[in-house]
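#struct-pred

JT: dropping the chains for the assembly here, can someone run the whole complex?
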Amino acid sequence: MISDLEQIFSTNIKGMKKSAIRELLKLTQRPEIISFAGGLPAPESFPIDQLKDITNEVLDQDGIAALQYGATEGVTELRQILVDRYNKEGLNIELKNLVITTSSQQGLDLVAKIFVNPGDKVICGLPSYLGGLGAFNSYGAELVGIKFDDKGMRADLLDEKLAELKTQGIKPKFIYIIPDFQNPAGITMPESRRLEIIEVAKKYDILIVEDSPYREVRFEGKPQKTIFELDNSGQVILLGTFSKIFVPGFRIGWVVANEKIVDKFVVAKQSTDLCTPTMNQKIAYKYIEKGYFDANLKTIIEQYHEKRDNMLSAFREFMPEGVTWTEPEGGLFLFLTLPQGMDAEDLFKKAIENDVAFVLGSVFHCDGSGKNTMRINFSYMSKERTTEGVKRLAKAIKEML
Amino acid sequence: MISDLEQIFSTNIKGMKKSAIRELLKLTQRPEIISFAGGLPAPESFPIDQLKDITNEVLDQDGIAALQYGATEGVTELRQILVDRYNKEGLNIELKNLVITTSSQQGLDLVAKIFVNPGDKVICGLPSYLGGLGAFNSYGAELVGIKFDDKGMRADLLDEKLAELKTQGIKPKFIYIIPDFQNPAGITMPESRRLEIIEVAKKYDILIVEDSPYREVRFEGKPQKTIFELDNSGQVILLGTFSKIFVPGFRIGWVVANEKIVDKFVVAKQSTDLCTPTMNQKIAYKYIEKGYFDANLKTIIEQYHEKRDNMLSAFREFMPEGVTWTEPEGGLFLFLTLPQGMDAEDLFKKAIENDVAFVLGSVFHCDGSGKNTMRINFSYMSKERTTEGVKRLAKAIKEML
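RK: done, full complex below.
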């Protein structure tokens, strides 16, 4: 072994830590623990039998192509069907505007690879998806957090911050937004706020990265147009994924953007993994094409809707005064705020003693704030376990009050 | 669209070009073209029927886990069976020494992410696998090329170069070696040279990255010990992949290294794609466990052996005086050298007119040398097409002489 291993690691990797969530998940895998910590889809939503049939069909009809290297851009029929779906929704994109990625996480990694030099600023919400922050950090980005209200990132504070940075000659590389059923906050940005954010982005000539893994999982209320569609000028990079609306184990995501930006994604992806698994893409295409996707998505929405309702009623029944939470119209997460001054980290230890787990809200805050907040997942656990878990959590909170 | 898009790209992405090979492959996809350009495995080697059975079995018995998120380190049973196979061969590793990657290309990307700061030197062979060079470049590495003889990278020149760099206070981050059936040169490093390279690496306290995608595809001669095994001190990072010995479309590779290094791979991979597709890993495990892997590998070896022999006899029959080529004991490629002063780029245009394609050797040379060399793939085309292709190539060369 070489003598100075710790010294020769890159500056960026030295700054990276193992994901708090993924490490936490390991700790919370004792079977007796009721875990609201992960972001796992409900296993009962996985279309196992359909996938057996489709895989046989793909291997029978198109096996050689399915097992061979594929184009870096992705399998054309899958890209085309995704393009068609977006256009049906109101977007106006072509094949050249969409590239398949090996999970949406790769989309986040590549966004950073394409735009971030060490020390560059990136704007993110307080809070924001940890995996996004981690990817940006891994290229040496310096994160600038903008506070939320009940409509998501505040456009006025964003404007103020960008003005302040501008006086210092600093132009952030992009604004990172998860507009629908935000992870972790569970908040959906209404159209008015989306338009305000676009206006500020245009004023300061800055890209928006719209991370949209949950958008299709809407239980109620009116679907919001994507920021990409509302902008319609090429200023927005839209990231999508099958992880929450089909299966995560296939690791298929995609990026929709201006052709010049997609071109850079392709270049960056070539040196990263050459191409996304071909067979998985071909199966995903057939799954959509046969109509299974839309049918199964309905089931997922119904399941998660029930699970959310069940969790909310358990919250109302068991949570002590002073604890508040978001009531998301879709997605997988809600966000819980403890009374001011209470520390979710202390609660975490007590919760684990009580065999219930969650994720500290502070890990989603790039400035370390949010000490009294927690992210709660409602998609994974059964309704019975959820109710019991909320009881245990409420008990732990009461003990601390 | 923002006004200064071209300016805001990262320094690293500005330095990256689309892979010459992958772009070339697009140009050479006219059906009439006989292409020796790609690095594609033979489609007739793909075990389609076995994969249908195994996929059904995995989805039946373990469907939920196969479709869910998995551990960043990879599926344990797959890691374990790979560890066992290496140990049977003579290595002495544990589960903690092996992490699954989404293709060996991801292994190369992560190596660079973990070690390379912009401006760091990386040692590579003249020539070396283009995808490796691309991955290192994408993190701003400066490549230092070391010439080959018929045993691969010259240890004496490596020693000289490292001594020279040391006087300048420069210590490269690692030495990149493809010891078996090297891509593109088709050369295998004998044990004596491996030991010399290890000695030099130890003398200058530098890591070795051993990229080993072809090692199992040996037609004749004695299998060489991996550099990892010969070193046995943790100074070597070994990259493996299923792409050439099973199927490339699954995108499964792995990294074997000292535990502290594996730990960094896991951290880096978390922000890159969270985990490699779970189902693909579970299928690969069963494919090995059922004995299909070893049986099918034998068939691949026989097929490629025949294809190589066929190509070599066509070369002997048709190539004009002054053209030389390597005669690899395995793998997918051989390397052809034109008479001094002849330019493979001129030949390429003529070859395409004659409906035959190859890859310019110069793209594998980080210093731009190798103008009169070319990489020839013999695994993909049928024997008949290969013979015809060699005829066409020989004709083009004769026309230029």
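JT: nice. The first helix of chain B runs from residue 5 to 8. Chain B touches chain A through 86 residues (CB under 8 Å).
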